[in-house]
Specification:
Largest sheet: none
Shape: elongated
Number of strands: 0
Strand content: under 5%
Number of domains: 1
Low-confidence stretches: none
Length: about 170
């Protein structure tokens, strides 16, 4: 009988704690910004159009026809990074505890105040800069275009997923 009573007490205690915690509003991420999402969607479309145009590979001799597009894409991405990082990232005990738990499990926690989407957009910008520099130096093969696109798609997916998730 005492075992049943102890189990019931734990259940009541757990339910009470759950109710109390659900009444608290804790912000764990930056606020949603439609302008960032719209910018990401637009940049995504432009990137995919660019990759489609370059899918057969490029030649160094025609780089000047693509240079402005590269620079526009990189500039758009860098502007989005600034916008994403300009939002305040909440600091509270809950996020600190979550980060501690993740660290104990060996999961890498993002340092500083950067949103994960900003980090992903920075990586896209670096990838496009590397592609531009390679294209300018020697052109890029169809295989290289697919490799650059694959990396960009991974980071775009991360950035778009994170930013659209913020719209709760």
């Amino acid at each position: 009988m005492t075992r049943l009573k102890a189990t019931s007490m734990r259940a009541v205690f757990s339910a009470t704690v759950l109710l109390l915690l659900s009444a608290c509003v804790t912000t764990l991420a930056p606020s949603y910004d439609k302008a960032i999402v719209d910018g990401l969607v637009s940049t995504n479309q432009k990137l995919m159009e660019f990759f489609a145009a370059a899918s057969a590979g490029t030649k160094q001799s025609t780089f000047s026809t693509r240079e402005k597009t590269y620079n526009n894409l990189i500039g758009n991405l860098d502007a989005l990074v600034i916008q994403a990082n300009a939002r305040p990232v909440p600091k509270n005990k809950v996020t600190e505890k979550v980060n501690e738990a993740l660290t104990k499990r060996g999961v890498r926690v993002l340092e500083g105040d950067d949103a994960p989407s900003a980090t992903a957009m920075e990586e896209i910008s670096k990838t496009m800069t590397k592609m531009r520099d390679t294209d300018q130096k020697q052109g890029v093969t169809a295989f290289e275009v697919r490799a650059f696109k694959g990396q960009v798609v991974i980071y775009l997916d991360q950035a778009i997923t994170y930013e659209t998730f913020l719209e709760r």
